[in-house]
Amino acid sequence: MKLNNIIRIERISASSLEVDRISLEEVIVPDNLVWSKVDCVTPVKVESTEKDDRKSSIYTIKVTLQLNKEEKWRGIPGIYAFRLTSVDGNSYLIGMPERPYPIIESSNVHPAKVSESQGRTITIEYQSTFDIPLIKE
Q: Mean of the per-residue pLDDT values for the chain?
C-alpha cells in the first residue's frame, strides 16, 4: 500500500471502534465515531514492513510523530486505534477493536544540537497479518 504524506492523525478507544473488513486492503468504519485529533508536527513518518515465515505474512506498521508542545499525551491511559489521513484525502486504520493492539512508546527528546527538534516523540507500533488498510467511505 502506497501512503502519501500523512497530514493528520486521530485516535479512538479501541473498545469504541467498529470495523467491517471488506477485503484484505479495505475496511469500513461508521461515520458517527468520535475521533480525537493528535496535535503533532506533520507530515508523520510511517513505515510498513512485511515478514514471511513461509506460512503467512506478518506486517509491522510503525508510526513516528513529534507532538506539538500543547498536546497532552501523558496521563491518558487506554488502548487506542488510529486513523491516519494522507495529503490526498485517503484515510488508513491502525489497530482493531480486538488484540493485538497498537503499542505506544513515548520519549522526551533532548538533542545535542540547538538546530535539532526537541520535545515528546511518540512511536506507535502495530503487528497484523494484514497491511495497513484503507478506510472506505
A: 87
